[in-house]
Structure prediction request, 253 residues.
Amino acid sequence: MTPTTRAPAHITILSLLGLGIVWFAAAKTGNDPDILPGPAAVWQVIVSESQNGKLWFHMSQTFGRVIAAFCLAMAVGSALGIWLGSSPRANRWLDPWVTVMLNLPALVIIVLCYLWIGLNELAAIVAVALNKTAMVTVTIREGVRALDRGVADMAQVYRMSYLSRLRHVIWPQLGPFVAASTRNGLAVIWKIVLVVEFLGRSNGVGFQIHLYFQLFDTASVLAYAISFTSVMLAVEYLIVQRWEARATAWRAV
Prediction:
């Protein structure tokens, strides 16, 4: 998202407030807190869970898994994307593999990782990373294919070192694709992490949602879901969008 298309802060805040008003109106209309509790009831749960420390503990466990899986997926996917984008022969052979991984349901990968590796932390992180790696690979591959070959040839003529070419030629052109992978990656990975925790972890936001789902406690389910969504929104607006704006700023020049 470039600086010209990024929404001002006050519009973002008003938009989120509008969503809260819709939620409040829906809860009032339904008038059944067991089905859809209002914002005040959910806020009381958030405060209670924060005071006893459970909310912070489970959110930190989930956030740690998100970061670990994200870093693994970005590292492997970027390396594969650069390789496939720069080697047509390798891409011809491995493109069907990438397509299979793109279309393999996340639930299948999660279950297989738990069966093959065990119900442990390694299986959880690997399962999430595998679900995202193919998407990163495709995005970075397209970025490599879109590189301006004329600029690369000019850099070779001037005998620029590899590090100089990477910094001044490759990265400015590949940066927007990496930024797009980062935004999409975080949005997808944290949701898959919740499924992983729901199925086979003993802590984390997904585990808590599973617990309160069994107790039919809708307010607690919403409290944990909204709390972690708020964290990821903060990461999106305060870190990812700003970095993406800097990565794409050269296009407006």
